Structure prediction request, 414 residues.
Amino acid sequence: MMFLQFFIWGCFFVPLGSYIGKLFAGREDIPAVTGFIYSSNNWAGLIAPLFVGLVADRFFNSEKINGLLHLIGAGVLYYCSTIGANENALFTGLLIYFCLYMPTLALVNNITFNSVENSERDFPPIRLWGTIGWIVAGLIVAQSLFGVWNFKILPDALQKAEETNFPLKLSAVASLIYGLYSFTLPATPPRAKGTKTSVAKMLGLDALKLFKDPSFSVFAVCSFLICIPLAFYYALANDFIKQAGFEGPTGIMALGQVSELVFMALIPFFFRKLGVKWMLLVGMLAWTLRYALFGMAFESHALLVLGVMLHGICYDFFFVTGQLYTDRKAPKEMRASAQSLIALLTYGGGMLVGNQVLGIWAKHVALKADTHEGWVAGAKNFWLLPSGIALVVAVIFAVGFWDKSADKEEVLPH
Prediction:
């Protein structure tokens, strides 16, 4: 289940930037177009919690809803593969798809928690299969083992599959298979059936009470702000790596997920040594370093690869630690709402703003993103902004966050 869930997303989402660059080659506003189309994911991230709270938690079994959403999503993804160079139509198609897909991220967690004996012990190794699915998807599309060893598994016409609609079609097929498979998953009935609810609770807005804690407020605001530079990576890194001269950039980006696996396993060790504040701060500073390395990538390709491999620290140290911190700070009856609120601030609001900012900034620095020469001339200026934003956010967090309460208790599962 987890493998297929993230295989589908990683298969088309990572190379989508290269596909958009190919579709709209010659246009000076490619970064803006890319950011606009990628923002479909973020708009859906704002809508998804309402659907999950209203339907999945109260009316129907999670595995059945998961199956239905992926079956419909398969058709929508295939339709998206046929749209071509129409940015508004492609945005609309992907927005519809992500409104179907984003709720399933919560559904698969719900199915897992309902099916295992000890969620703290059993969930992490199950969730790791999602990261493995994302990695495998990238290697298949790139036809390369992390850019080191090339292997041919696709027809000759798809030797540069990242620049074609093939990833969308492959994801559609996987979604069809996964949708059918979902109906065989363990029955997971709605837990909140018959209980009273409100729009505020479904959107996680009851967790706004946590903002009375100054440190949590700093954490929440910084979580929003750090996702502005994060959008730069998701939208443009794949095409940037391709223009830097790498064959199979999706395979190179899969190195980020490999490092994620490594650092995920090391989180308990670092958590004991560093504590919440320093874990979060190191994660923010890793974003600063990553974009600085991207700015120097044409001086040495090794710097670019190192920047990609920082993903494990960037993601695990900040996002995973942040989820653990939120879980510790929120009262038991408010934990789901608190996690929903942080998700709205990060993958919804923060990245939505970031996808708009990257287009404006690319235009300001006159970046020609569809050519190697354009990136050679503009990489330093372009990546300077996300690196600077991440550094400023890290400083704000270092000065404003002084909550040591989470360090006094065991936060991580045994």
